[in-house]
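Hi V.,

Quick status before I head out on leave. The structure for the redesign project is tokenized and pasted below; the design run finished overnight.
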């Protein structure tokens, strides 16, 4: 696995994985703990994830309702999968171009690349 050093401290990621990655391996590396481990090592203090429209199981209208649901965290450092994270956001893919302004890339470009990707790539 290649680790980049972030120029900015909040990583923006597109959820999902390349089609040629086995589903069990993909699920493991997409877990909150594994993602945060790699992002933190790169210098991130937070993450903004954009659901990949090509693999969204739930529509955004239903996904966004979760913000009003109660949640819970277990007490104890051993249960904190994202220790050190200051921000965790899920961003509506329909408005992702607003988030990407100034990067030189559009969300459609990134989503299209992700549909054919065979390996990881950094855009920013």
């Amino acid at each position: 696995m290649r680790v980049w050093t972030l120029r900015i401290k909040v990583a923006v990621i597109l959820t999902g994985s390349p089609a040629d990655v086995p589903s069990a391996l993909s699920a493991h590396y997409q877990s909150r703990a594994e993602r945060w481990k790699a992002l933190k090592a790169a210098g991130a203090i937070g993450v903004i994830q954009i659901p990949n429209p090509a693999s969204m199981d739930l529509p955004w209208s239903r996904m966004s309702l979760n913000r009003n649901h109660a949640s819970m965290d277990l007490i104890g450092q051993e249960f904190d999968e994202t220790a050190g994270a200051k921000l965790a956001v899920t961003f509506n893919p329909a408005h992702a171009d607003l988030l990407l302004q100034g990067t030189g890339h559009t969300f459609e470009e990134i989503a299209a690349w992700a549909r054919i990707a065979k390996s990881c790539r950094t855009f920013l």
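Above is the designed sequence. DSSP finds five helices and three strands in the chain.

G. will cover questions while I'm gone.

Best,
W.
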